[in-house]
Structures are given as structure tokens and as C-alpha cells.
Amino acid sequence: MKKKSLLIGIFVVVTFSILTFPLTSAESASLPRVFIMTTHALGTKYYALASGLGKVLSSHLPSEIKVMPTTGPVEWMPMIREGEVDMGVANNWDCQYGFLAKGPFEKPMKGKGSRIRLLTSGSPNIMAVVVSETSGIKTFNDLRGKRYVGIFAGSAGQTAQAQAALANFRLTKDDLKVMSMPGVGPSLRAIIEGRADASGTAVLGMGLVAELDAGKGARFISYDPSPEAVKRFNEVFPAEPVKVEPGPGKIGVKEPITMMKYDTYLVARESLSEDAAYELVKVLWEYNSELWPIHVGLKTWTTDQFVTKHATVPYHPGAIKLFKEKGVWNSEMDKVQQKLLSMEK
After folding, report:
1. CA–CA distance, 35 with 66 (Å, rounded to integer)
2. Strands 116-132, 218-221: parallel, antiparallel or unpaired by DSSP?
3. What CATH number belongs to 131-262?
4. Could you state, in chain order, the average pLDDT of each consecutive group of 10 residues for the chain (345 residues)?
5. 3-class SS at 255?
6. How many CB atoms lie within 10 A of CB 275?
7. Where in the chain is the domain with CATH 3.40.190.10?
């Protein structure tokens, strides 16, 4: 009798637990115990963004997100194609060129695309050419004959941004004294120290722009906003023009100017299951506000940015399923998706 009572008690407890704590859709989807998310090196903005995304995902999934630093997308794009990593964080240009196996990705990818799919877009960067106030440069025409950092040896994407600026301005390398630097940081340091006149790209809000402003003064140069000029820019680097007004936190913006905005992507391997992709994006949607306090860059990783008609790689079917449920995927996005899928190698 005691044994029977004990079994009944166990049954009641188990039944109550199941009814009170039902399996989540993530658990029923049999997600892997560990996801590997990769990005740039330790200390970079993208590593910080990936760490923040991983923290929120790990908090709400029955899976652990392990963030793996690398030298950058040229290293991890082949890994994601082979299924060695699950996700990656990079800008839209790197994702596009990895997807197409073009430019710096052609050799490491052996001519085969990365087979990546977009989960969400987020944290856009706003950029422009930057100079010192003491240089006397106020428009792109004033750049002629100046020392212009247009090659960034450590980043093919930043080099493309600097080249896109020249295309927008209808300038060529023969119109300036083109210089090479390891990255944007060293290019701004060169301006501060008087070794360069302009950096072909810099992001609004960069610490070194503030340092330049505190000394010689910093000035962002407006892009040409005409449709023809924007088209020339986009033929080199995918971005969209934005009007930026002077104001708090906008160091270097001296008057209303046109800058360019480009996106950061969270991408996944194509072979990631639809259920897994759905659950990953669902967590980032439903717990979006938990990202914002982690890092200043994540304050703009917001749900209104998740779907973009300017996508440079196709979305994952699992992400599309979630976006349709939320009412943010439409027929225009179907056309964008089909066009991108037709480009895949």
C-alpha cells in the first residue's frame, strides 16, 4: 500500500511538473548543446557584439553559444561553409564577398561561395571621409593633391569604403597622394600626428575621431547625395545615404551632411536546421532589449533593423518563418530573397 501511494505521489509530481513547466519549442526542436559563433579578433567591436549576442542567446536557449575570435571573415568563411562553425558576425560587404567568393575571398574560398544565410541585420555603422579642421579641407574637391589614406592593409572592406568614397566624388587615385595604413585607427593617428590629411573612412562615434577633434578639430566630408553618385558608391561598397545633422555625440559633423550607413550581420551556415535558425532569431526578437545595456554598439541591434531590403546575402528559411509571424516580411522581400539565391555559387 505504501509502495502504491509512493508511485501515485511520483506520478502526481511528474504530471504537475509537465503541466506547469511544458517543454519550450526550443527544447522540442532538439537544438545542439553548443553553437560556435565566430567573428573578428579579441578587442574589436565585432567581437564585443558577438559576445553580447551570445550572452543573450545562451540565457534563453537550452544551448551554449561559444564565441570564437579569428583574424576575420577571410579566415572563418571557409570554416562556416565546411560546417566547422555555426554562425558569424561581420559587415555586409564581407558577407557579400564571402557569399560570392569574390575579391579577397576568392582564393581562400577556392572559388566556392560560403553558403551563408542571414539571420538578422543590426547595429549599422555610419561612415564618411574624415579630415582635420586645420587642413582647410571642407569638400571633396579640396582633397585633390592631399595625402589620402585609401588602402587599409588589414581590412579589404575598409579599403573598399575608401575607394567607394573616391568613386562617389569622381576622383581617382591619381588625383590624390594615396597612402596605405594597417587600419582606420592608424589612419586617424596619422592625421593627428600630421602624417596624413584624410582618412578614406571613419565611423561616427569612434574614439579617435573625438581625440582628433580635441586637438586639431575633426570634420567629416559630405558625400554627394545625388542618385548617380550614390550608385557609383554602391558599385564598390553596399551602403545607403543618410542625412546627419550636428548634435550631441556627432563629433566631426559641423553642418548637415550626407554620410553612408552599412549594416552588421549575424549569419549562419546554410545547413543549420530551420528550427534552430527560427529559435535563435526568436530569442533575439523577444529579448531584444537585453542586448542594449551590454555594449553601446548593441543599442542599435533592434528588431526594426532585422529585415533589410538592402541585404547582400539570402535570409535563412528559419529566420523568414519568424519574420512572417511578426509581420515584417513582405512580397518585396521575397523578390530580394530570390534575386540573392540566384547569385549563389
Report:
1. 6
2. antiparallel
3. 3.40.190.10
4. 42 36 44 94 85 97 95 91 95 94 92 95 94 95 96 85 96 96 90 96 88 96 97 94 94 96 96 97 98 92 96 97 98 98 91
5. coil
6. 16
7. 20-124+264-342, 131-262
